[in-house]
Amino acid sequence: MEESTHPTLFEREEPPEPPAPPVVEVHEELEQPEQDDLVAQPSVRERRNPWLIVLWLIGVVLTIAGLWGLIQAAERAMDPSYVIVDGYGSEQYRVVGVEDFYVIPAILVSLSPWFTALGIGSIIAASTVHAVQWSRRG
Predict the structure, then answer these.
(1) Lowest-confidence range among 5-9, 101-105, 123-127?
(2) Is 89 left (phi over 0), alpha (psi -120 to 50) or beta?
(3) Alpha-carbon span 120 to 57, nearest angstrom
């Protein structure tokens, strides 16, 4: 029987060794810019990361939505007739139903803390990214 050169399931396949990079000799001397030239050149400003901007926006929106939901749930619990229907430039009150008294406050109370926590977490994450970028600059 012939022996196979392919590795089995339990043997590691060794990758081929890459060829050595060619040696290039450089005989020209590199010109060092003078200190005055470095000061006169305008600094290149880094582009802003669009995902970081989105993270800040998500954090602010979720925090505001969570706090708004908690306030709305508290107002509905204190006065269930607080349900306002906007119509034609005036505020109109309507009859309070079961969903206004039980369902909507329960949904707001259960989701609002999560939105607030996610928003604050996003703001902390964005601040951490800014801190890491700042520490790498210095």
Answers:
(1) 5-9
(2) left
(3) 11
